[in-house]
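Design request, tokens follow.
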């Protein structure tokens, strides 16, 4: 079996030269770029808003335990139950027990990367409970037998023609269906699922500590529907999703919307503080919040990477990243792709298997520039690389080559000692591996600049 790093290189090489994939991604991200640029003009001082949001999220992390306990206390007072899960296995065990207790045969799920992280759909299916994605993009990739391609727009890699062909194959709809027709078809399918579902599952964009509530943000109303009809509402949330105060959502809602889709504010922002109360006609009879660690405290322990826990999952870093736009979301082979995924996944799932992701970065700094909570992603990526090298997780041959290069290149005279033809011969294999084959190594000039300068001006 090939290693994850080798598979990453192989998959990257294949997708980078897939012209259809590139055209689709460039088109979809260009639409995003235009919308976001327009959205930014609504801000009088975007930099100040980002700085304030960053300070709030860092404050959360500095007092993490206090805010978590405050959230648990307050939401429990509203009638919800809180369960803690150290890892995927514990989270799935909690959910499995709830599904069995409720004899659940159907659950509807609002878009949630945390449930993707733990593989909820697969577990539910294994015990005979159908799990239906209700976000349109998530529904499309579920029908295709795929996983989300992007943390905000799960089907970004598919054109409308691709989706029309998929729906024709799976549902017998017209292969020439328009996006409106396809959306209407899915709406009809999901309406029946909502009213028949035993369980509704959501993630949480924010956990509000001071009032004890969960905030779910989405554009299609599927989150509202998933929590209104079923008798049981399960929330699966990473323990980093906290905001201290309800009134801070006025800052975070617009920041998340404008960086995620360019909107002034997301269409549906639902705040749920517990199960249905006496006199209320809608909502679940029971609400359970599962707070998931799953490596987040490992990330928190890192002196550099801990700030990545401030992420609000807007997806802006993915859309700005030249590497993501070239190799796409599936190449990363993990739940969180792009710069944020490359920064956090080694800490969440182990450097031995995922340390290579932090090398999938040009260090251009675009991700840092666009981040609404000022996460120093390039610094984290560099620190991760250093950790990979310190723990001897890179090939030994690479270390030998770099030592040799250091010896030769650390002094100009050492580099000039070798004639140009020998340096060109030494780098020739890079045209086929490592650097190539999509690029050609530039050739060394017969004389270096320093040699040329010394010849022109003796004594230099």
């Amino acid at each position: 079996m090939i290693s994850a790093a080798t598979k990453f290189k192989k998959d990257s090489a294949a997708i980078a030269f897939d012209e259809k994939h590139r055209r689709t991604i460039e088109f979809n991200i260009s639409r995003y770029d235009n919308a976001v640029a327009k959205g930014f003009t609504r801000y009088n001082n975007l930099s100040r808003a980002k700085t304030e949001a960053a300070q709030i999220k860092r404050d959360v992390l500095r007092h993490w335990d206090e805010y978590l306990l405050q959230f648990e206390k307050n939401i429990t007072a509203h009638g919800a139950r809180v369960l803690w899960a150290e890892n995927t296995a514990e989270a799935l065990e909690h959910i499995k027990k709830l599904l069995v207790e409720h004899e659940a045969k159907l659950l509807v799920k609002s878009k949630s990367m945390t449930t993707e992280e733990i593989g909820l759909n697969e577990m539910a299916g294994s015990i005979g409970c159908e799990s239906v994605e209700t976000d349109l993009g998530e529904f499309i990739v579920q029908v295709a037998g795929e996983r989300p391609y992007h943390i905000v727009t799960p089907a970004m890699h598919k054109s409308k023609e691709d989706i029309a062909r998929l729906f024709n194959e799976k549902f017998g709809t017209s292969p020439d269906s328009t996006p409106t027709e396809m959306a209407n078809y899915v709406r009809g399918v999901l309406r029946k699922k909502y009213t028949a579902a035993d369980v509704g599952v959501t993630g949480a964009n924010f956990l509000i500590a001071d009032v004890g509530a969960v905030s779910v943000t989405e554009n299609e109303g599927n989150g509202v529907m998933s929590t209104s009809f079923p008798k049981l509402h399960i929330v699966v949330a990473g323990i980093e999703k906290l905001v201290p105060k309800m009134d801070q959502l006025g800052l975070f809602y617009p920041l998340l919307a404008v960086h995620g889709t360019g909107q002034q504010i997301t269409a549906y922002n639902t705040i749920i503080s517990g199960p249905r109360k006496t006199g209320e006609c809608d909502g679940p009879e029971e609400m359970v919040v599962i707070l998931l660690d799953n490596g987040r405290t490992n990330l928190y322990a890192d002196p550099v990477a801990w700030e990545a826990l401030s992420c609000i999952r807007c997806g802006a870093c993915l859309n700005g990243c030249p590497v993501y736009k070239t190799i796409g979301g599936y190449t990363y082979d993990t739940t969180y792709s792009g710069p944020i995924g490359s920064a956090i996944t080694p800490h969440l799932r182990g450097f031995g298997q995922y340390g290579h992701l932090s090398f999938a970065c040009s260090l251009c700094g675009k991700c840092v520039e666009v981040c609404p909570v000022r996460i120093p992603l390039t610094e984290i990526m560099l620190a991760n690389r250093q950790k990979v090298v310190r723990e001897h997780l890179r090939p030994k041959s690479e270390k030998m080559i770099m030592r040799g290069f250091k010896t030769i290149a650390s002094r100009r005279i050492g580099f000039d000692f070798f004639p140009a033809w020998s340096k060109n011969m030494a780098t020739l294999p890079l045209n086929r591996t490592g650097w190539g084959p999509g690029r050609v190594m530039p050739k060394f000039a017969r004389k270096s600049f320093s040699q040329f300068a010394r010849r022109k001006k003796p004594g230099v």
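Comment from the thread starter after seeing the answer: thanks! The first helix runs from residue 4 to 16.
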